[in-house]
Amino acid sequence: MKANNIFLSFANTIIFDDVSFQLPNDTKCGVVGVNGAGKTTLFRLILGEVELDKGELNFGSKKRIGYLPQIVQIESSDETVYDFIYDGRPIKKIQKELEEIYARLSNGEDNNSPLLKRMGRLQDELEMYDVYNAENILLELIINMNIDLDLLYRPLRSLSGGEKSKVAFARLLYSNPDILLLDEPTNHLDVETKSFVTSFLKNYHGEVLIISHDIDFLNSIVDHILYIDKANHHAKVYKGDYNHFLKQYEEEKRLKELARQRQEKEMKNLEAFILKAKQASQTNHAIKKMKQDREVKLSKLKKVMIQKEQAYKKVKLAFSPRHEGGHVPLTVENLRFGYDETHPLYSDLSFRIGDKERFLIVGENGVGKSTLLKLIIGKLSPQDGKIRINPKTEIAYYAQELENLEEDKTILENVKNDEYSEWQLRSLLANFLFFEDDINKRVKVLSPGEKARVSLCKLLLKRANLLILDEPTNHLDPETQLVIGLNFALFEGTIILVSHNPTFVSQIGINRMLILPYGRVENYSEELLDYYYLVNTEQGKKSLK
User: Fold this and answer.
1) Nearest to 455, CA basis, from 435, 474, 479, 482
2) Which of 106, 391, 515, 541 is most buried (most C-beta within 10 Å)?
3) pLDDT number for residue 543
4) How much is the pTM?
């Protein structure tokens, strides 16, 4: 992959400014940079969803590109999971077209040279997709990715967010493209599946570009790092893993700062000399000439002066409820719900939440954690049972898939609230690192990390006393995760949380845990959280025995 002098901007915001880089064939490359630097935008350029203003992005003869977005959107349909994954390779489509060609040829079109050539190309494609071994490959992939065999014949519409991500990932790997683009691929992977995916990608015969905040994952796979610098809109390729890149980058920063300090010192010396020369006698031609020489040197130095490294601002949060909540904000009684009447997710689920409690919902993917949150907020209706919300309870919901954002509206329009003036909203958005004209960007052009910050801002503006959070750290860099964890820990209200992030969970101070699908409520246990972090893999089951 090669970029030649690429330039891209959205309105007045420059993303890439005269960027050139080259990646070797079949490289495994981590794409890194702060949120909003342009990582996801680079993927959109490769996919052809965005056009460059100038320059060229070349992938050689490789054309088949596979993409796993950070937020997976699978159309809710009756298609089964198995058919969805299997169709990752267009085998059925190719076979259908071949059958049509065979029929035409049998009807006397045997002298049709273009038809014969097309038939040959299609047969080559079937060979490339290993048609006779394809189902075995698929079954092995399904097993290695810990996709429950019972899930295979369920309709896509019944999947949870975590299940959708895993199924989409399996389809992508099965499709066997020339270039794999992966945006935060480990968000929904259990430990065992992550281990398989790591090995799979490391040995993949093709190019792999990965955006990830999971440093261990990157270090296990990549042999190059593409760093996108938000400050100067440039990009640079580093050979080696993430840790090696970090050492090189820090050393470059150190040497650059030393060089800048030397330049600054030289500039001060030149300015001091010029000032003294101006105060000297104007009839002293030797001093006058020396002054002119120093002025030329100073002018040249100013043109090549190294700029001081920009310090990136950090997200600032402050969550405070408008009103005190009730003694029991929420009660769930004998709840029953399922997407399939014969296989309910829960049939007699009951629990109570106390005021200012930190309540964690755990369980393997697909047991209904996100679904339960949607039932509580009224997005779904129970088939039986009651969800009682105290009249004093005000709810704010953070959606895992960020579906509470309106993609075609601007950032400012998404957070608009009658209780706040535009000036106040601008001030609040600045705390979430959206400055000046940033607020007029449409949400659809934002990176997932930026969208997550908009969602967090909307959450804050509601000033609710019950926060319902579905995987709030999925799209955020580690530094921002730390900031929001500290603020949620200080929140003077109640929190119901679904999260697979043990550091974040420990940070906000969980009191009790609801274990699905069993419906048990237990006091918080770090060991129990670690177990469910393994998401019921064989390794986890053995460790529990």
Assistant:
1) 474
2) 515
3) 41
4) 0.67
For the segment 480-530, what is each residue's pLDDT rounded down to a tens digit? Answer: 888 888 888 888 999 999 987 888 888 888 889 999 888 889 888 877 777
Nearest residue to 226 via CA among 245, 207, 244: 245
56 phi, psi to nearest 5 deg: -145, 140
CA angle 496, 500, 505 (to 5 degrees): 55
Q: How many domains does the chain have?
A: 1
List, for residues 171-187, the tens digit of each pLDDT value: 999 999 999 999 988 87
For residue 445, what are the CA distances in angstroms to 17, 36, 312, 415? 18, 10, 21, 16
Is 253 inside any structural domain? no
Is the CB of residue 158 less than 8 Å from the CB of residue 397? no
Which two structure tokens, joined as six digits, stand for 539? 């390794």
Other CB atoms within a 10 A radius of the CB of residue 239 amount to 12
Which residues, 6+ apart, have CB-to-CB distance to 459 below 8 Å?
319, 396, 397, 398, 467
CA distances in angstroms from 61 to 29, 178, 488, listed in the order given? 19, 10, 50
Q: Which residues have C-beta within 8 Å of that of residue 444, sequence separation ≥ 6?
A: 407, 408
- Read off the tokens for 122: 């299609």
Q: What is the helix, strand, coil percentage profile of the chain, to 5?
A: 45, 20, 35
Q: Which CATH number does the domain housing residue 388 bear?
A: 3.40.50.300
Going by pLDDT thresholds of 50, 70 and 90, the confidence category of residue 357 is very high
Whether residue 528 lies inside any domain: the answer is yes
Residue 101 inside a domain? The answer is no
Q: What is the pLDDT of residues 282-294, one digit of tens each?
A: 667 788 788 888 8
pLDDT, tens digit, 9 for 90 and up, residues 436-480: 788 888 888 888 888 888 998 888 888 899 999 998 888 887 778
- The pLDDT, as a whole number, for residue 282 is 67
Whole-angstrom Cα distance, residue 451 to residue 407? 10
User: Which pair of tokens denotes residue 256?
Assistant: 């650059």
Inside any domain, residue 120: no
